[in-house]
Amino acid sequence: MIWKSQSGGPWGGNPWGGGPGAGPRARGPRPQNLEDLLRRAQDRIRRILPGGFGSGSGIALIAAAILVIWLASGFYVVQPDEVGIVLRFGAYNRTTQPGLNYHLPSPIETVLEPKVTRINRTEIGYRIEENETTHAPEKVQIPEESLMLTGDENIVDINFTVFWVIKDARAYLFNIREPEKTVKSAAESAMREVIGEHPLAMELAAGRAEIESETQKLLQHLLDYYHSGVEVTQVTLQRVDPPAPVIAAFRDVQAALADRARLQNLAESYRNSIIPQARGDAVAITQQAEAYRQKVIARAEGDAARFDEVYHAFLAAKDVTLERIYLETMEKILADSNKVIIDKAALGAQGVLPYLPLPGIPGMGAGAPAPKPAGAPAPAAPPSDAVPGGAQ
Which element (helix H / strand E) includes 230? Predict the structure, then answer.
């Protein structure tokens, strides 16, 4: 080919544009030799440094100073809330405690200083951001994180916060790539699992503490499974509400449930007051019946014993017993009747006429004329002037 016959390539002479064989296409200045550049740099250093430093001893002093500065760069201070993680060529080497420490200068060893006592905060379902207009912090809802399904197939809007600290700095730095994102994802997963096992009424009422406790235990179990080196100190529910579109209807339902619970409590209270009273009345009636039973049995036994005694007495003296029975029988018969008893001796020869309280005999009023006793003279007629309405 034609260019092979030309010295220095197709462009003629030196392909970099120099040399005696350069053709018409060669352009630009000729590049300097590397030795010339080094020589000029040494000349400049000699002019800048004082006399004597341009020699071999001066260069050695400069190298020694650079070495000292490089070695001194290995000193570092670990703050009280930190630990030092020393890496040798990028791999874990050792852990240092707070205070002044030393590691081999970079790039041999480097140090990481995570804060192990600081309480970190992870917000799920919301974020605290600065308002662009007022520059004040405000809460921004994130529905894709906060809406969860409950155990009774309802939807609940939950905001909660996870507080955590670093318990193992080595595991925290090397076992998980994005610790904060890992904690957030694990916390959201744990909360969804716990919420899915409980009904909505429990989550909105007295079950919040139980949900926080179960979520913290489950989240810690997940983080330990990942060997994350993170310890969860607290899980706090910020807000537990139904979704905004149905919150009015949900409040009506909750009011109805509250009324039902109130009425049930009233009925239970009435039941608790009636049942003991009924049981007391039943016991009282039972005791009264038992007392009556004992009374009747005792009376029957007494009557039977009395009859036996009377019978034995009758067998011993029949005449006396018959007379006594007769007298007792007549006493019972005549006990409630009006009666007049006249001694036969009063009707003797003396002619004593007894006064009988005839007006007290039943069937005779107070104004009725008294019957005339046998053998008594007739009463004299009243005078004419004593007769009401008679002639004067």
Answer: strand 230-241
